Structure formats: structure tokens, C-alpha cells
Amino acid sequence: MVFLLLRSMRIAISILLFLFSVSLSAQTVDSTQVDLIDLIVGKVNIKRANQTRSNRKIHFSILPSAANTPGGGRAIITAVNAAFILGNPESTNVSNIYLIPYTNLAGKYGLFLRPNVWLNNNSWNLIGDYRIVRNPQYTWGLGGNSQEVSRTLIETDYLRVYQTFLKRIGSNLYAGVGYEFDNYYNTSEREIDTNGNLENYPVPTNDTNISSGFTLNVSFDKRYNALNPPKGEYLFASWRVNTQWLGSDQTYQTLFIDARKYFKIKENPSRILALRSYYWTVLDGTSPYMNLPSTTNTPALGLTSRGFEFARYRSNAILYFEAEQRYQLTQNGLFGLVAFANIVSASEFDSQQFRYWQLGGGIGLRTKFNKFSNTNIAVDFGFSREYWSVWLIIGEAF
């Protein structure tokens, strides 16, 4: 475990050097911004509508969409975002809550609740992730070079309860504790050619698998609005300890480090370069299969691994880097364009060595939905080896 901690510290330092070695330019605010609501009310009513909207304490954004689900069928998804400020606007970050219900009207359903709340003067930051899901997912086994022929389908119900409490202890610096609970139940595996991925795993995956543990967390957050940061940086580190006395089936520990940075190109302030990297590893013990680090399934707010299928690569350690260039296509901020590239490696399960690196990337369109919360509608086309898809979300991926 000491070796893994030292190795994790070296990786964390590398991530910080990568993200924090560039400088920021000054932020500018465009007073002539236009959003979709302005187009709906029309030019005649824009001034009156803007006055009414600016006085609102909560700004809502809503986006209905549909997506394919593993095992066949399509799900109807509705994403609702509420943005608000719980204190002095000059010294309090923008809070936001995501509510995402979905169903395919044939037994598959899900409800996600993701609050990120800032109290007055940023004295506390309360981060939550609550889910109840009945939805299948594919798995390809372990390691950074798992093949398509190894794919099986896992049917499971899932309950997640994550809550973190961060207290401000310095300028943009926070520390605190949390609790994380994962319950996979009614679990079964099908579409198996020879041996299933679950039955080959060292820890049996039974009908029910529970992981329950406390977390110790440190955060540095210099973003005013996490929905669409124009500049700033963010670092979050979480050490999770799952113990049987808290109800966990297995005793094991994990470490998650997430770093992000945003800066404007000085030669062109309408362009923003956004960088992200995370490291997620099992420090000690053996995690249940479904709780192993995997792509797109990180214990953090935001979307990762665009271009990769959900949980495409899974092991006891994941290392990820992403860069996204954001362009403003129109001076009024209504339309934008992004181009992104990412690289991910899942470790070799027996050694935690990163031998294989997988590339992904894509492009996306942005439309300003709500200029007061700076919320975009994002349509992204992403691809990787043997896979491509389209993502439709509110806000930015990170």
C-alpha cells in the first residue's frame, strides 16, 4: 500500500505540472449576449424579458433527448438543471442541481440527482450524487487492451448515495469528509460465449454487492461557475475507505484525483482551452467488479471519456487526460464549437502497470440556452476504436 501511495503522489504531481504550467488571461464579459430564450421572446420583448429574468433567484434549463441502451431499445431522457446563488454574488459561487430521469417504458429506468451547492461566501461546498437505476451495461473484462469479443451484458439494479461536505479552510481551499454507498443487486450476466467476466473475477459477484465507506477529501476550486468556467482551476482528491463495519461486503480503499484548468487564449479571448486529467486507483484490498475504476464512471461531477462506450475499459487503476478547445462562433455568444481529444489507460490488473493507451476524440456544437447561468446545450460527436456516439447534455462535459 505504501508503494501505491508513493506512486499515486508521483502521478498526482505529474498531473498538476501538466495542468498548472500555463497562465490565465483576464476574463471579459460580453454585455450583448443572446440565448435561445431571447430568440423565442423576440427582439421587441428582449429588454423586458431580460429585466424579469435577471431578477430571478433560480435559472432553469431543461433538455429532453433519447439514447440507445445496452441490450437493445432506446431510453427517453430529460435533463433539468437549476442554477442559483445562496449568498453574496460577489463572493459566492454559482450553485447548481441536476435532475435526470429516464425510461424506455419497458422496464429500464433511472433517476439521477446531482447537487453542487455553495453556501454564503463559499463557507461550505456540498456535493452529492444520488442514483437509482435499472439499466444493463456491457463489460469487456479487465485491462487496457480488452477485446470486443470478450464483451458480455450485465443486468443489474443500482443504488448510489454519495455525499461530501467541504469546509473552506483557506483561499479557494476546502477540506472535509463524506460518505459513499453503492449497492448493485439483482445482478446477472448474459450474452456469454465461453466464460463470463464476472465469474473470472477474484471476488465473487453475487446477486447483491454492497460497498460502503467514508471519504476524506481536499479540494482547490477557483471556478466561479462550474457549469461553464471561462477561466480558473480545480483540484479534487478523495480517499475512500470501505469497511465491513459500515456494511461493505469487501474491505478495500480507493484514491481518486481530479484536476482541471481553463484559460483563455490571449491572442483570441473568445477561445478557451480546457484541460482535464484524473487518476483513480484501488490502494488496498480487492474491489467488487462493478466498483472497479472504469471509463465514464468516475466518482465526480461531469462527463468523462467522451468517445468511449460506458465502462469500456476497467481495471484496478485508470489514468486519463483530455484537452478541449472551445470556440465562440458568433459575437453574441449564441453559437459555439468545440474540438476535443482524450487518452486513457486502464492498468494491467495483476501489476497496475499502464501498458496500453487508447485514443478518443470528437467535435461538438454549443448553443447558449440561458445566458444568466451561462448554460449551453451541448451536442458532441465522439469516437474511439470500434465505437462512435453522440452526446446531448446541458452545460459542459467538465
Supply the key terms.
17 strands; 17-stranded antiparallel sheet; 8% helix; 51% strand; mainly beta; Porin; 398 residues; globular; disordered N terminus
Explained architecture:
Strand 3 (95-103) and strand 4 (109-118) form a beta hairpin. 8% of the residues lie in helices and 51% in strands. It has one domain: Porin, CATH 2.40.160.50. The chain has 398 residues and is mainly beta. The chain has 3 helices and 17 strands.
- For the record, what is the CATH homologous superfamily label? membrane protein fhac: a member of the omp85/tpsb transporter family
In total, the number of strands is: 17
CATH topology: Porin
Helical residue percent band: under 10%
Query: What general outline do the C-alpha atoms trace?
Result: globular
Q: Whole-Å distance between the termini?
A: 31 Å
| Rg, Å, rounded | 21 Å
- CATH architecture annotation name: Beta Barrel
Q: Pairing-aware structural class of the strands and helices?
A: mainly beta
The helix/strand order is HHHEEEEEEEEEEEEEEEEE
The tally of structural domains comes to 1
Q: Summarize the biggest pleated sheet.
A: 17 strands, antiparallel
Average pLDDT across residues?
Answer: 84
Identify low-pLDDT runs.
2-6, 11-29
Per DSSP, the total helix count is: 3
